[in-house]
């Protein structure tokens, strides 16, 4: 089955380009395109896509607010959203991830990374552009003013081993290869980590790892 994607970007040429690029993939289908965040929220409720691909700077409602409304902590059935932007600004990335985004890419990321991020979001995973991952998480860990939350149960030795490469932006397959375990075992450890630290996805797990000084 195809992954149904909703695009939101205020530039018509970008919407057209992203639509052509994604529709060219054998297992991705663009089902709608919005010119602003308000329209994106409306179309998301109407079309029920599998993944949203949202720009940040848009009129009427920006991509971060649209993400918060569709994927925020209070949303019962959150839409997996990948934020894509030309602006490599830390506050944008952090704002998007705090709002519930499953991924963050720059528009120069290229087709391979873009489709990888779409697949990751659809699979309940998350992907951040490698160029910003570690720098971003480390910077905001240092800026953290409140003490990080403690896990509801102590982490196992293996969970600690999995936590480090997750915080470095590694994929499940890369982690599995490095630790000589299967990708499904990595997923199981990641699910346990999310439960213990109160995270909704691997990005929040990575943020917690930096906040607690594990990286």
TrEMBL record:
Domain HTH luxR-type: 148-213
Domain of life, per lineage: Bacteria
Entry annotated with the keyword Transmembrane helix: no
Keyword hit for Repeat: no
Sorted UniProt keywords: DNA-binding, Phosphoprotein, Transcription, Transcription regulation
Species: Occultella gossypii
Modified residues (4-aspartylphosphate): 55
Residue ranges of domain Response regulatory in the record: 4-122
Protein name per its UniProtKB record: Response regulator transcription factor
């Amino acid at each position: 089955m195809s992954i149904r994607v909703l695009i939101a970007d205020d530039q018509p040429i970008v919407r057209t380009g992203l639509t052509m690029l994604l529709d060219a993939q054998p297992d991705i289908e663009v089902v709608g395109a919005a010119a602003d965040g308000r329209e994106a929220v409306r179309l998301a409720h109407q079309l029920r896509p599998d993944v949203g691909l949202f720009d940040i700077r848009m009129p009427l409602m920006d991509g971060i607010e649209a993400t918060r409304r569709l994927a925020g902590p209070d949303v019962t059935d959150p839409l997996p959203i990948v934020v894509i932007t030309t602006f490599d600004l830390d506050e944008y990335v952090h704002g998007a991830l705090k709002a519930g985004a499953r991924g963050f890419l720059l528009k120069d990321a290229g087709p391979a990374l873009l489709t990888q991020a779409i697949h990751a979001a659809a699979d309940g995973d998350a992907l951040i552009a490698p160029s910003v991952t570690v720098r971003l998480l480390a910077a905001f860990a240092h800026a953290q003013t409140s003490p990080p939350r403690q896990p509801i149960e102590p982490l196992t030795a293996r969970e600690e081993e999995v936590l480090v490469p997750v915080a470095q932006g590694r994929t499940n397959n890369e982690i599995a290869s490095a630790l000589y375990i299967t990708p499904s075992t990595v997923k199981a450890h990641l699910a346990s980590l999310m439960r213990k630290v109160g995270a909704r996805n691997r990005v929040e797990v990575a943020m917690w790892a930096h906040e607690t000084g594990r990286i």
